Each structure stands twice: as structure tokens, then as C-alpha cells.
Amino acid sequence: MRDRECxxxxxxxxxPAGEREMLGSWMKLAAALVLGLTAxxxxxxxxLEVSSPDGNITVAVSDEGGHxxxxxxxxxxxVMEPARLGLLFADHHGFEDGLEIRGTADVTTTDExxxxxxxxxxxxxxxxxxxxxxxxxxEGPARAMVVAFRVFxxxxxxxxxxxxxxxxxxxxxxxxxxxxxSIGGDADAWWTPSRQxxxxxxxxxxxKAAVVDDAHTPVxxxxxxxxxxxxxxxxxxxxxxMSLLALRxxxxxxxxxxxSDGIKVHTxxxxxxxxxxxxxxxxxxxxxxxxxxxxxxxxxxxxxxxxVEPGKxxxxxxxxxxxxxxxxxxxxxxxxxxxxKRYIDFAAEHGFSGVLVEGWNIxxxxxxxxxxxxxxxxxxxxDFDIEELGAYALSKGVRLIGHHETSGNIANYEAQMxxxxxxYERVGVRQVKTGYVADAGDLVRYDDDxxxxxxxxxxxxxxxxxxxxxxxxxKRKISINAHEPVKDxxxxxxxxxxxxxEGARGMEFNAWGTPxxxxxxxxxxxxxxxxxxxxxxxxxxxNLRPNEKPPVREDMQRGDASNRPQTTLAKQLAxxxxxYSPLQMAADLPEHYEERxxxxxxxxxxxxxxxxxxxxxxxxxxxxxxxxQGRESKEWFLGAVTDATPRELLIPLDFLExxxxxxxxxxxxxxxxxxxxxxxxxxxxxxxxxxxxKLDAALASSGGIAVRFVPN
Length: 712
Hints:
712 residues, alpha+beta
């Protein structure tokens, strides 16, 4: 066997230098495991430990009872009981029973700082201790599984790595991942269901971990002692998305989304899974202040990305959701040349960089939800001149933002994608919003035999599709904003043109959702979905009762009057700070902003790209307060929002530079504000503050406060 395994190392040594650098250490270790070499540690260790740099978090890895397990402690107390690790395959022996730890490398430390081209903060510290643990079966064909653990001060990540031994040669079909998470049934939980038709777009459920049956990640828990834990994944590439499936009350197993053939993952060795992440914090804001997801992704692969441009935009979008206009060409078509010029003029006048236009291309007439094969991504409706509008926008210092709705027909989109991006590149489009409106499990592709197959939005196939889109767009210096996407796992670090996405209930549900987003929605999003990365929530609605307007045409009806944003106007402003996206939309109609230009000033002033971000205060589902420093202006902005419960916050301003004075421009709820009865009661005022000051923020029911700090 020694000769055979050495040949694998010899073959690997002949690979390009870049591949050797990327894979060398773990493949060398895995080969040593199979050979039983002792240079990498004891033949049988039993239990190994690795701690975070500050010593608060410790992971103990064991092979007790022949099972690969890990246990997590915080502050010396066990917070996650022993949980299983392992993989099962359709055609190969898996890693389940009879395992023992073999040949383990020493703990290594990484402490580096890297710069984001855009993001919540410019400089990101990547500081962790790493332990790579090898497991081999005591019986059966010789094979090795390495589990790499990286432990940060704010949590940990771990992943599986396999070496191409004779026992793991050829195509590998993963049928199950045995990864478990032991939370405990008494923990509080905030989650959305993972096996429902509407993908990630559900109102968050709250309850004890014992009643969670299946959940999308990120899913957030609060232990009885107040410790907060969030489970997710990082670097989801060529693998299927992970949700959590309850084994017993409070104990969960990784549930991988199966493909149309029933197999969860098709792969080959050498192989690395996505990272499974566990964020840990003593309080809720500590979850937000972690960079684990980003740090577990590979660095930028695109090279110079100076063409990726954060900014704010307006668009022909909300008008369709409130039935002011339509996507299809039926007499009140929204995407006309005339209407688009009106939005371009508004954007240019008020300093917005882009104008999104939905419904411009052929395919929207009739039942577009079920007719995805009819979309043409290069042919416009007769009343929309994309060449003229591209030039007109550029003449005003604005760019069109493109739109590709697929209705889930991936085959039709991929057949046209290259031509569609070429068109956008020619007319000056630098950002494209993609859409995959289809029930979960109904994405259309054709296999090699031309047979129609249906896939899930978080299947391995769709994970690959998104990367094909991002890479094709990057060749034309185009950035992507994906809606109905696969969840964010931090790949914006590797592909900085994948700027933002949806992946939760956004503003549109307040136009027609049943029910609309409840007052606590934002105070849950901040500690769940937003932990994974930016969200194009599309905030800034100023007409908070849109469906009470008379219909624009006699044969049309508005939505139910109860469908409306359940917030105050001040809370709409605060969303620009609380919910991060490098592409922030001012989602309402221009005429609604023109009615309240004093409040609109905050949207004009707030930035979309940040030098630094700090979550200050909050509790999951109740309230959140966040401060961010603009990357361009270096001014600080603050946003705080609450659920239906009015509350008064006293917020220290010690994030401001010491020794400087600032004018705080405050946009807050009025004394009589209430999201239901009086949402338009707001006050705009100024006060002088320093880093020693404390801001008294009185938040109305589902209210908020937005503040700009201007140095004097």
C-alpha cells in the first residue's frame, strides 16, 4: 500500500504550482494518515483539542466508540454536547462507524488582515487557530477523512477533506452528511422552514429549539444562560445547500438538498466540503460583529475589481407591486422609454447612481410565472429603446441596472446568457438583477439526454448555475444582485461582483403578502439572514398605505389595504443603516419622495459602502442598533429599530472619534408615532455631540431612528 499512496503524492507533485500550494498540506496529511506515518502526530490520539486565540472557545475532537465527534465549550462550560461527524456515499465505503484518529498535524495559527474592495468594513482581521484531524476506519478499504477545524474568537468553522485513494477513486456520490449540531431543547430559536415552496421567503418562526423540525440556515439560538449561537455554512461551491433536520428535540443533522436524481452531491477526490459554521457570542450584537463567514472563503479570484461599484439606486419596480404599473405590455406598461427617462432624471437630480428597469424584455405578457421559456433577454418591448436609454442615462451620470427574470427556467436563460450580458455591456449596464421566481424544486434544466429535470434553488446544480452567471458577468465587468437565490455563504469575497441578493422576505411582501412582514421582522433578520451577507431588502417606502389609493384603471384592483409596511416612516430611514447592502434601493415612487423631501434627505446622504460597522445594542426579535462609518465621507451613521413594543434606548456614542465634536442630524419618531395609527409622525432635529455623549433614542411601536454625524 505504501507504493500506491506514494504514487498519489508523486502525481500531485506534478500538478501546477498553484494547485500544489492550495492543496499540498492537507493532501500530504491525508496520505500520511492512510500510510500510518507518525511524523504528523500519534497514531491514535483519542481526543484532541483546539481553542480560539482568546481561549474562550474550545473544540474537542474524539473517536470514542468508533465515531468521529466534536464538542464545543465556551468559557470552560460545554455549550454543544458531543455531536457526530461523517459522510456516506452511494458507491464507496463511507465514514460512519469504526473510526479512529490517525496522524494529526499540530495546531497552527493564522493572524492576518485583508482589505475588502467594498463591504461592512474595509479591513477584516482573519485570526484563528486550526487543527486538522484525520480519521480512518479500523476495517475495510484504506481511506482517510480529514476534518479541518478553524476556531476564531467569535466561533468556529469545520469542513471535510478527502484524498483520492484507491478506495475513493472515480465519481463519488454523497448520499448523506452525518454532521450534527447539539443545541439543547431549552434554547430559544429563530428560524424559517427549509422544505417549503417559497424558498427562503417566510415569516420567521420563534420558539424553543425542541419544536424546530427543519430550518434554513442561518438559524439562531439563545441558550438559557444568554449565550447566542448561529449555525450556517461558508464557501458553498460545487455542493448542495445545507439545512438542519431535527433528530431529537434540540439535536440536528445537516440535511443536504438532493438533486433531481436523488443524489445530494456529485464530486471526485480530492474534495473539500463547504465550511460548517457556528458563531458564538455572549450577546446578540456579538453575532453581527463577527466576520467568520467571510474569512472562511477564498480571496478574490477576479483580480482588479475597481469596476465593482457600490451605490444607491431607484427603479421601475415598486409601481408594479402596488399595481400602479405592470410588467407586461398591456396599456400601463411600466418599462417604457418615457417612464425610464423620468426615473433617470430623478436619479441624476438626487445623486443616485442607477435605475433598475423590470419588465423591459419580451416574455412578461400572460402567465409569465409558468412560461419561463418565453423570456427573451435581448429583445425589448416596442415601447422600450434600450440603446437610447443606455446613452441617455450615461449622459446624466447614471447607469441603467439590468434585469433578468428567468421564472426558474435555467435552460432558457443559460442558452441566452452570454448574448444578454454582451448587450448590457454594450449599453453601459454595470449591474444586473437576476430572478428565479419559481416554486422550490421547480427549476428547469435538461440533462445530457434532453430530458427535462427539476431542481431546487439550493441544489448542487443551482449552486453551480449561480457561479456560471457570476463568472460570465465578470468577463463584461458586470455585477450581480440575485433574487430568489441560493443563500449567501460569503462568496462575495472570492467573487466581489456578486454584490448582494435577496434570500428572505423583502419589502415586496408588504405590497401583497398575506400577511405582510410583521413589526419584529427586521429585528429578527438582523440576527439571522443578515449574518450570511448583504440583502437587497429594497427599503425606503414613504407611502405606507399604498393599497388605499384609487386604482389607476377601472379594470384593475389594488391589493388588500392591510398589505402595507408595518413600520413608521422613521424606521424606513433606519433600514439603510441596519440592513446592509452595497446596492441600496430607494424603492418608492419619485412622487412619494417629492412629498417628503425633508425625510428623503437622509436617503440621499447615507452611504452604501462602509469603512467600519459596529452592532451596538439589541436582542433578537426585539430591537437592534448599528453604527457604520462611510468609506467615502468618513462620516458616521446610526440606525436603530424596534418591534411592536415602543422602547427607549440610551446609546453611547463612543464609536465617534475622541476629541472631535459632531452635529448629529436626527430623524426620529414623533411623540405620537405608531406604525398602525400614526406612521408619518416624525421629527428632524440637530444636536451637538462628542464621543462622550449618549443618544436618547425613543422608538415608537415598530419605529426607528436614523442619524448622520457630521464632523464640525
